[in-house]
Amino acid sequence: MNESTTDNSALEISKSQRKRDAHELLDLAKKLISMPESRLKRMPMDDDLRREIDFARSIRAHGARKRQLMTVGKKLRRSDSEELMDAVNDIDQKNRQENARFHHIKAWRDRLIEGNNEALSKLIELSPAINAQTMRQLIRNANKEAKLGKPPSASRKLFKLLREAHEQTPLPAL
To answer: What is d(CA 125, CA 146) in angstroms, rounded to the nearest whole number?
Structure first.
């Protein structure tokens, strides 16, 4: 008698787990509805789900949009959404990597503008594509603009130069 209850409990999914799964799919539905059209077209989904998402995107009233969001979540629960979830997670991962790259380059720019000559010499040594004279001039101009309260055009140019250098040879860690 005890054996049958343990077999049943192994096959049953708890109510809490079902709720967590439903909330996860609801979050996926929110991401899909708010996703740009060009990216949404590349998502692997059936036509019925795509129509429901397009309809949800066209709704402006808050209550109706929320109901349609629940409908999209329900469609996701009924279909196999693993492939779709993986595709959305891949996009999120790429966005996180791009943001990390941006912040890394920005940190290098800020460190160079602060006047850290050791960082400049390390950067020039490890990235042969960087023109040292141009780099030093941009750093001087960025400092001058900051002191005078001018728009940071030299700082932007320095960032652009660092970004181009990073595409050729990744910048070292700070």
So the answer is: 27
d(CA 147, CA 41): 48
Domain 90-168: assigned CATH number = 1.10.60.30
pLDDT in tens, the chain (174 residues): 444 455 555 578 899 988 898 899 899 999 899 988 888 888 888 889 999 999 999 999 999 999 999 999 999 888 888 888 888 888 889 999 999 999 999 999 999 988 878 888 888 888 877 888 998 999 999 999 989 998 999 999 999 999 998 888 888 887
Query: The tokens 């979540």 sit on which residue?
Result: 73
Sign, CA torsion 119/121/125/130: positive
Q: Are 129 and 165 in contact (CB under 8 A)?
A: yes
Using alpha carbons only, what angle is made at residue 48 by residues 43 and 53, rounded to the nearest 5 degrees? 60
| Fold of domain 2-79 | Diphtheria Toxin Repressor; domain 2 (1.10.60)
Domain parsing of the chain, residue ranges: 2-79, 90-168
Query: What are the structure tokens assigned to 25, written together?
Result: 């799919």
- Tell if the pTM clears 0.70, that is, is over it: no
Contact criterion met (CB below 8 Å) for 127 and 112: no
Q: Enter the tokens of residue 55.
A: 């309809």
The alpha carbon torsion through 105, 111, 112, 116 (nearest 10 deg) reads: -150
